[in-house]
Amino acid sequence: MRCASFLLGLVLFVSVHCQNYSLPAAKKCDPEKCKLPSCRCSSTEIPGNLKPRNTPQFVLLTFDDGVNVVNIETYRDILYNRVNSNKCPIGVTFFVSHEYTDYSLVNELYNRGFEIALHSITHKSNQTYWKEATLENVTREFVDQRILMSRFANIPRTSMQGIRSPFIQLSGDSTFQMIKDNGLTYDLSWPTVRFTGPGLWPYTLDYSSIQDCIVPPCPTASIPGVWVIPMISWTDLMGFPCSFVDGCYSTPDLKDEDAWFQFIVRAFERHYLGNRAPFGFYVHEGFVRVNPAVKRALVRFINMIQNMHDAFLVNANEVVNWVKNPVPLNEFVKQDCPRFVPAACRRTTCSGLREEESGDGEAITKRDIDDLLAVLKDSDVFEDGLDHDNDDEEGFFNKAREIMEDLQGEDIANDDETCDELTPEVGQVSEDSGQPHIDDEQDIQFDKRKLIWKIGLVLFVSVHCQNDSLPAAEKCDPEKCKLPSCRCSSTEIPGNLEPRDTPQFVLLTFDDAVTTVNIETYRDILYNRVNSNKCPIGVTFFVSHEYTDYSLVNELYNRGFEIALHSITHKSNQTYWKEATLENVTREFVDQRILMSRFANIPRTSMQGIRSPFIQLSGDSTFQMIKDNGLTYDLSWPTVRFTGPGLWPYTLDYSSIQDCIVPPCPTASIPGVWVIPMISWTDLMGFPCSFVDGCYSTPDLKDENAWFQFIVRAFERHYLGNRAPFGFYVHEGFVRVNPAVKRALVRFINMIQNMHDAFLVNANEVVNWVKNPVPLNEFVKQDCPRFVPAACRRTTCSGLKEEESGNTYYMRICNRCPRVYPWLNNPRGV
């Protein structure tokens, strides 16, 4: 299948980086000149020319980000007091970032013999910052962190020898020159999808690297003595690579321990039965913690390694040391265990510390807003496992509130920035390997959107080149803008009703593909429910194309639920959506409408709304496409300014007062197109979130009562206010893997069903009511929405080739099989 859309979530930056031309360009490696221990050519050959059976199989288990009182419990539970078969303690590497870290716990990990490595001070969420970082930038991030960590964790500076860049985003030569200049040893940030079987062994940068450049810019200079430990990708159940375990898209059921154990073992065996390149288990603790079956599978795998005579859990620096001086297995097991000097810790709690650069009185910069929004931005990439439990960092949250207050009066789309250059096209996928074709002049970043919540969210806040052919929107004139065809953007209740006379609408939406997995949740919690007016509840499904079972879309439609559009490709390159032209969005959504109608066998006119992937608007293009093609509304535009009282749906005949959180937002007059604002929730720390599963600080995921109260409090802000529609926007996976949240949601739905003045309806019903607002006592007497049931002759189609990429798919549909896999420009698959 198509890689760019399959790999849902790592936002791709495919661009050229200005390298440091003062460094000499690397030449092709000369094995006669490049000799261990100081130099090694990039190669899949085993160091020391050993045979695989004589080579220790090293296993690298790493965890990223802050060390805190929550994740330390996982580490204590699964890692402490373990030894390999050679009687040496197991090794694990922690790539630690600064914010929210408890340095007394870093000291504890060090004293347990684990490796502490560097993951930056700021962990800035603006990926472009890392991509374009200068030598000075990366030196401050990592070398200053080494000083910081040594001082506050009280561990030797020289014990920290390695780095991993946030978002595994290299900074070209700068990253590796910094390592060399400051006496560090290695980097473990560079993924490979090309050299996985046989795997690429660690090597130095004395000479040019043969490694594929997945997240450019990669180094091109000769930087002698700096070691690269390649991140050798796993292969998921669909055959696609993933650098982080929690970044794999197609995985076993998260509740199936045996399947996960086998999944891990299969990945391990590709190394163990091959050239025994180090096997990496790169993961984020939150994923392990919230998925007990995965945790148990990992423990079983660790137990297995402990009982093997030729496999060893070691840290990253130990791998480099062995490669420098490779010895066969029979000698390795006789070597002394690594030693370290224990470090004392006089544990101290410090409060009220202000970060000087962003302290009181300092100007709030554009980057401040970017970085905060990246924390607050609440798209579907935040899933169940995010670690939020750092609420003792008062300084951080106070600063964040200051920025948000400043943001209330700012339209961050209206600045002086120019549009980014268009990014190169992602390479086509090889039929033979299932991997993207990469040639010497083309580098692509290859991972998926699902990974981002686990390693940090990338948010782009920048301007968009608008379509100047459209007339600029003017300030709304209420005398000219009248319902049902026009409404000014406003918090006033339509029809000038009083809140007590206004129906409280609840909008429950789910995004992405409809599959045999998530349909079980929908059947369980949504089917056979009615509101107090005896009409069936309404729910809106924003459906994307890939992996969707169209016979199940038909089923949802026949249950009376609304089917809406979420794009054909769901491309993971957010810049693609930001810069999409009218032609682009037309192909994505209008072609999808044709596709969905044909293969789910539902009326084309029943699909009236859209939600853009990543809630990333394309400026005027999004809304012009809606108007040009007889659609009705968009539900992709969040607001944090108009939450109490909430912003009611409105049309784009005139300029909008809504804050532009994810620009570009529309500026043209596009009459008759409706905007349903995504009114943000407020999390436990007072920060906004548009998706429920995107809230940063939430109740314990196992506490049903706390979650129910959390939902009810969010609802009451609407119900006790101006009764603007209350949105429960969520992704099914979050509900499925958190049973307590699921039970809380069911309780909330039950509550709404029993209220005389609140109603679960779909998005199009909300627009229809706003067009013709009637008071509550009339609304409850109206006829229920009707639809014409749609038949489905369920058919399974296999071996469908997508012509543009050459990938092969199967589909379940309600019609005859298409000739090829439906895609952009060919939604019928003819």
Helix and strand content put the structural class at alpha/beta
Distance between the termini: 18 Å
Say what the CATH topology of the largest domain is.
TIM Barrel
Using DSSP, what is the number of strands? 28
- Helix tally? 24
Mean pLDDT: 85
CATH class of the largest domain: Alpha Beta
Poorly predicted runs: 1-21, 359-468
Q: Gyration radius, to the nearest Å? A: 27 Å
Largest beta sheet, briefly?
Answer: 5 strands, parallel
Task: Tell me the CATH architecture of the largest domain.
Answer: Alpha-Beta Barrel
Strand % is: 5-15%
Quick one: CATH superfamily of the largest domain?
Glycoside hydrolase/deacetylase
As an assembly, this protein is single chain
Q: Give the overall form.
A: elongated
| Share of helical residues | 25-40%
Number of domains: 3
SSE layout:
Elements lengths: L2 H4 L50 E8 L6 H9 L13 E4 L6 H9 L3 E4 L8 H5 L3 H19 L8 E2 L9 H9 L4 E2 L3 E2 L10 E3 L17 E6 L2 E2 L1 E2 L5 E2 L14 H16 L6 E5 L1 H6 L1 H15 L4 E4 L1 H9 L4 H4 L33 H11 L17 H14 L44 H4 L48 E8 L6 H9 L13 E4 L6 H9 L3 E4 L8 H5 L3 H19 L8 E2 L9 H9 L4 E2 L3 E2 L10 E3 L17 E6 L2 E2 L1 E2 L5 E2 L14 H16 L6 E5 L1 H6 L1 H15 L4 E4 L1 H9 L4 H4 L15 E7 L6 E6 L17
Pfam family, one: Polysacc_deac_1
Organism: Danaus chrysippus
GO molecular function: hydrolase activity, acting on carbon-nitrogen (but not peptide) bonds
